Amino acid sequence: MFKKRILALFFLPILVTHSFAAVKYKSVESLFTLPENQIDIGKASLTLAEELFPVINIKAYAKKIDELVDGVRNLANGSTDPDYRIRALNTYLFRDAGFGYDFSDPYGKDIKNSFITGILDTKKGQCLTMPLLYLIVAQRLGYPVHAVDVPDHFFLRYVDPNLKQQNIEATNGGQYAPDEFYIKDLDISEQSIKNGGYLKTLSNRELLAILLAQSSYWWAMHGDEIKCINYLKHALEMYPACPSINDGLARAYFTYAKKIYAKNHSQQEADHYWEIGLSYRAKAKELGFVKPPEGEYIKKIKKKAKELGINEKGGEQ
Q1: Does 9 fall in a domain?
Q2: Which of 166, 186, 206 is the endpoint of a domain?
Q3: Residue 48 parent element (H or E)
Q4: How many helices (H) and strands (E) in the chain?
Q5: Model confidence over 235-270: pLDDT tens digits?
């Protein structure tokens, strides 16, 4: 399925101290207006995680990220060759540090596994956290690695005109996969590509919007649809062409409409919010939103999980 990369690099690691002044941003709200050149995805990810899990030790997680950055830097040994840098990232993260796909929770049912702190705790991640960690490390090193959004999945792209194979599949050892693979396997339409919904190389601000949307769903699950909608609206301002954020707002308004009706039986008020939800649903469809079919990639994950005796809910069979 994926073209293999040669991962072997044989440099002895040398300790290099790397740190940054603040390990996170002041608040989640401060993320809403950050300009592109001031966005550190690592700091933003830790800020979002701390809001949901306030007892975690943010400095300890920041240190773990620093150590990963130092490890890759040592292997890259100052190289400016993009392929060499990618092999350094792949080798250190997936071989030396031991990060891998989490077949025990492949769909991220455990909310902790949807945040950067989860993968740093267990060294196991899914299609959001694995590319997220990869990108955080690459960004700290100054590598032009960016996220690419496709239905229910993320991959990465090393943007360099001298690099022929730019896509990086972080859930499969950092191997290369062409755009055509995702188009076919995830049923991506030409319309969505043309509208900038899928397969677009995301800016840091657009990726931050998706991370903010991911965080918003936690609030919806805990009964705070207003906060969920607020976060999603800010996310949409940051990335208006995102199909999943538009669909997320639709679902949030549908849920809120049902809640309003159950609370005060006001059909008129409930209909008002339902209509807002329908407008976002229409926009999501216009942008090419799709729930991907069970393509070869998903089948492969399910097959592996079954071999390990794990069901789709994350528990043992």
Answers
A1: no
A2: 186
A3: helix 41-52
A4: 12, 5
A5: 999 999 999 999 999 999 999 999 988 887 788 999
Six token digits for residue 161: 């005109």
Residue stretches of the chain with pLDDT short of 70:
1-21, 106-108, 292-317
Residue 265 is part of which domain span? 216-286
pLDDT at residue 4, rounded to an integer:
34
pLDDT computed for residue 294 by the predictor: 56
Give the model's pLDDT for residue 173.
Answer: 93
Residues 220 and 102 in one domain: no
What are the residues whose beta carbons fall under 8 Å from the beta carbon of 202, sequence distance 6 or more? 146, 147, 148, 149, 210, 239
Q: In terms of domains, do 105 and 224 share one?
A: no
Same domain, 262 and 179: no
Tell me: do 177 and 245 sit in the same domain.
no
**What are the pLDDT digits (tens) for 201-224?**
999 999 999 999 999 988 988 889
For residues 167 and 279, membership in a common domain is answered with no
User: Which value, to the nearest 10 degrees, does the dihedral of the CA atoms of residues 132, 44, 123, 156 take?
Assistant: 10
Q: How many domains does the chain have?
A: 2
User: What does the alpha-carbon distance between residue 297 and residue 282 come to, in Å, rounded to a whole number?
Assistant: 28
Of the candidates 1, 25, 104, 16, the residue with the CA atom closest to the CA atom of residue 66? 16
